[in-house]
Amino acid sequence: MSITKGMVVISEAGHDKGDYFYVKSCEKGFGLIVNGKTKKHINPKRKNIKHLSALPQYEIINEIDEVSNKKISRLLREIAREAYNGQSARH
């Protein structure tokens, strides 16, 4: 699955492995990703799309200019909580 603007993704490599991000834009094999906390809308992280895993069931508003860092952070936290609660418990 290709990574596109507006998707929610999980980082699969690097120090932010396992973190949820919003894809602000894509260009030449890289995604500009934000999470509202460490990577703000004004200063997104540039990450190779090979190191991102898409969550197609979640798509945030494409007009990110109207979305604040606080809203992005809150929404990603809710998605992470929902994904965590949906997993089966380990024995």
Task: Summarize, please.
With 91 residues, the chain is an alpha+beta fold. The protein is built from 1 helix and 5 strands.
Largest sheet: 5 strands, antiparallel
CATH uppermost class: Mainly Beta
The proportion of strand residues reads: 25-35%
Output the number of helix runs. 1
Give unreliable regions as ranges.
none
Instruction: State the shape.
Output: globular
Tell me about this structure:
The protein contains one helix and five strands, in the order βββββα. The mean pLDDT is 84. The chain has one domain (7-86): SH3 type barrels. By secondary structure, it is α+β, with helices and mostly antiparallel strands. Helix content is 20%, strand content 33%. Strands 4-3-2-1-5 form a five-stranded antiparallel β-sheet, with helices on one face.
For the structure shown, list the relevant keywords.
about 90 residues; alpha+beta; SH3 type barrels; five-stranded antiparallel β-sheet; 1 helix; about 20% helix; globular
Question: What are the SSEs and their pairings?
Answer:
Elements: E1 7-11, E2 20-27, E3 30-34, E4 45-48, E5 52-59, H1 69-86
